[in-house]
Amino acid sequence: MSKVSTIIExxxxxxxxxxxxxxxxxxxxxxxxxWIENDISVDAIGKSADAAxxxxxxxLMLCIQYGYINASGMNKIYGDLIKAKQDKTSxxxxxxxxxxxxxxxxxGLGGGYWRPRKGDIVFFNAPVGxxxxxxxxACGSTDALNRAKVISFGERLEKAQxxxxxxxxxxxLKQAGHTTVKFTQPIWx
Length: 189
Hints:
The protein is an alpha+beta fold. It has helices at residues 3-17, 31-36, 57-65, 71-87, 91-95, 170-173; strands at 20-23, 104-105, 121-126, 130-142, 148-153, 161-169, 180-184. The chain has one domain (3-184).
């Protein structure tokens, strides 16, 4: 089984079983950082309020659990994200690393390739939060209404709390204020 299939199947299973993790806003989500520092185990990421994750940490947590990303790789990802924020460049672009050749803008695509493929990372851009306003995993399929299925964690939350992983669609998540929806292959693909 491919890495992408493994991650998506795990995420879909989380959504189907109502799996819950502790969510916190980006600057408060310390679960992966604590793991990098060897302060908690892999299995503790997202399992308590002091090891919370945010929406874009969710797919990374799954990759860490399967050994697709190690602590050194996570340090680089976080370092690139912080540098991008300091340089005022797109944090999402830097965050997801080297697969940027497939970066696409949902609103600007024509023809048959307008939906994210299985395993793509989907970014909802808004004035607050930029490309990281919300981040989800694409399932690579559509529902009965031809909407692009995704797995989402922590959508529309503002306060730290325990919450459920959800199966939803890009169209259901696109909120007023989202200026674009973009997607790209993940770094583990």
